[in-house]
User: Fold this.
Amino acid sequence: MSAILGVSGSPRREGNTDLLVREALRLLGERTGASTEFVRVDDLRIERCRGCRACMRLGRCAIQGDDFEALMARFFRADLFVLGAPIYWLGPPGGMKDFIDRTHGYYRDHSILRGKRAAVITVGADSGFEPHEAVMESWLRVYGAQICGKARVFAREKGEVLRQAEAFESVRRLVDELC
Assistant:
């Protein structure tokens, strides 16, 4: 394994999701020696899908000039992804969902992530894990990624996971599944 990409879909900088994705990257880097990269979707400028469906003709998104293609290039270079996102009304936050929606331009080629492994970290206060994971995992599967692990962490307030040994234990178990 040569490259691992960690993506946080949380709009809360250095919040629970960021902390857990960074921890997964740290552990994976130590165990595998692979290079790691952390990306916050909300630090990028990714336009919303316009529903124009031009992507179905072009085989790529028709919207140009934002950070979408650069983020996709990171996915293409990575061998393994760790995707983390908090639950916002039963699904991922808007920025992460905007990114997922924009990948529709690749729908003709269901194999763009084939051979790549993925893990999903979901952070939520108390419910909504199943529909959130359905969005995240379905997106990965549609494009051929193999989901090798997932972690569910219960936390609401910023930094709450720092007081929860179980949160970091969940990430350690996730890394064990991946290595």
Notes: Residues 16-32 form the longest helix (17 residues). The chain has one domain: 3-178.
